[in-house]
């Protein structure tokens, strides 16, 4: 067995002032909390079709989710799909999963075979509420929930 070298022993820089160390730690914690930011929660509940948009579920169909954040709407457009057999069954599932999340449900016409790569691409834009004027959302969290395969031949993935 090889010994693990952990380096020289580090001694406290302020052994004479334990209360000062506590104060410095507390001050550093306060400074860090002032400069940290919390990600904004986005809420996707209910949608309307954008005027002039193609029929729902078709490429270039655009959905408006009003009020995803304070004064902000989200426009979600179907940019494309891997083939005409890829279908959007529901733009936003509300009765399962996480109700506040954007949860599109996809499928294939016909029998779903393993070992086939199929996909749908969405474009997400944040706009000033009620307009098409782009706005900046400085920070938010994204995760993929309920990406389910069959554990054998069907494997699912998500790309951001």
Task: Note down, in words, how this protein is organized.
With 160 residues, the chain is α+β, with helices and mostly antiparallel strands. Helix content is 11%, strand content 24%. The protein has one helix and six strands. The strands form two sheets. A four-stranded antiparallel beta sheet has the order 1-2-3-6, with no helix packed on it. Strands 4-5 form a two-stranded antiparallel sheet. The longest helix is centred in the N-terminal third of the chain and has 18 residues, at 18-35. Residues 1-37 have low confidence and may be disordered.
What layout of secondary structure does this protein have?
Layout: H1 18-35, E1 48-49, E2 62-69, E3 72-81, E4 86-90, E5 105-108, E6 120-128
Antiparallel strand pairs: 1-2, 2-3, 3-6, 4-5
